[in-house]
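Priority: low. Protein: Holo-[acyl-carrier-protein] synthase. Input follows.
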Amino acid sequence: MIVGFGIDAVDISRIQRWMEYEGLLARFFHPQELMETKSRGLTAAYSLAARFAAKEAYGKALGTGLKGITLKNILVTNNPNGKPELTLFGDAAIPFKRIHGTHIHLSLTHESNMAIAGVILES
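Result:
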């Protein structure tokens, strides 16, 4: 059963500005996300923006926002087929367990200067 849906859009130029400050990126992104996106060169900002939008969309899908959640405890990766996946650690997993969550669906896209993510939570 669907228990939550969230969507978010992020201006890619915002993330491009953040990329000038590695310490800032480390506050919001899991080390694996940073490692994977560095190899993407000029498209790294697109990838990070989509991942940040996914984190925000997760908070909206919960219906409680991200208060009390460490953003880097939300890991966005791609499976071998390229499908985006969201993995939760620590404080990010607690509200999902509280709603008896069983599956997270994630969709990412970017166009021009915007990255967009949609999250559906099932229990």
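The beta strands are 2-11, 74-78, 84-88, 103-111, 114-122. The radius of gyration is 14 Å.
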